[in-house]
């Protein structure tokens, strides 16, 4: 009886992993269509995972988007049309490489602007720290005294 319970528990632990590991197998009309599909699911971002593309995500939304991508290609849509559909529906965030336009201007130029500002601040700081200050009379007299005492000791 104890052995039977262990077997049942083992099966219960293994079944969920088997069912969630289902691999989607889509049929394509030709090799180019399959290549387009694979390229698209690598370029489109999973909206749930945010840092994974559709090909690497196991989220339900990613599965739905992969299915939608396949259906659109099978209906004769070009990859550009599939991408435009996804952008229209989910926004530029669905793309790993968003298009350069006014709404994504800061996204594309922001890092360069930030680096330029940091470089300007660093150069400015270096220049201000390198300015020579004219010594006052008291400092000059102290330096003379130190130099003369050094000569006397030698």
Describe the structure.
The protein has 154 residues and is mostly helical. The protein has two domains: 22-99, Cytochrome C biogenesis protein (Helicase, Ruva Protein, domain 3, Orthogonal Bundle); 101-132. Helix content is 66%, strand content 0%. The chain has helices at 2-20, 31-43, 60-74, 79-90, 105-129, 137-153. Residues 18-22 have low confidence and may be disordered.
Helical coverage, percent range: 55-70%
> What's the CATH architecture of the largest domain?
Orthogonal Bundle
The name of the CATH superfamily of the largest domain reads Cytochrome C biogenesis protein
Q: In the residues, how many domains can be counted? A: 2
Uncertain residue segments: 18-22
Q: Radius of gyration from the CA trace? A: 33 Å
Q: Compute the separation of the termini in Å.
A: 100 Å
Largest β-sheet summary:
none
Order of helices and strands: HHHHHH
CATH topology of the largest domain: Helicase, Ruva Protein, domain 3
Strand content: under 5%
Spatial shape: elongated
Could you say which structural class the secondary elements and strand pairing correspond to? mainly alpha
Please report the number of helical segments: 6
Task: Quickly list its features.
154 residues, 66% helix, mainly alpha, 0% strand, 2 domains
């Amino acid at each position: 009886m104890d052995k039977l319970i262990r077997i049942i528990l083992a099966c219960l632990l293994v079944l969920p992993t088997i069912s969630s590991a289902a691999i989607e197998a889509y049929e394509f009309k030709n090799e180019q269509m399959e290549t387009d599909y694979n390229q698209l699911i690598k370029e489109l971002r999973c909206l749930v995972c945010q840092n994974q593309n559709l090909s690497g995500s196991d989220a339900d939304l990613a599965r739905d988007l992969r299915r939608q991508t396949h259906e659109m290609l099978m209906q004769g849509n070009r990859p550009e049309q599939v991408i435009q559909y996804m952008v229209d529906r989910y926004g530029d965030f669905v793309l790993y490489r968003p298009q350069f336009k006014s709404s994504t201007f800061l996204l594309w130029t922001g890092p360069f602007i930030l680096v330029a500002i940091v470089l300007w601040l660093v150069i400015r700081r270096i220049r201000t720290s390198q300015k020579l200050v004219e010594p006052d009379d008291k400092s000059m007299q102290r330096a003379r005294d130190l130099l003369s005492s050094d000569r006397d000791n030698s």
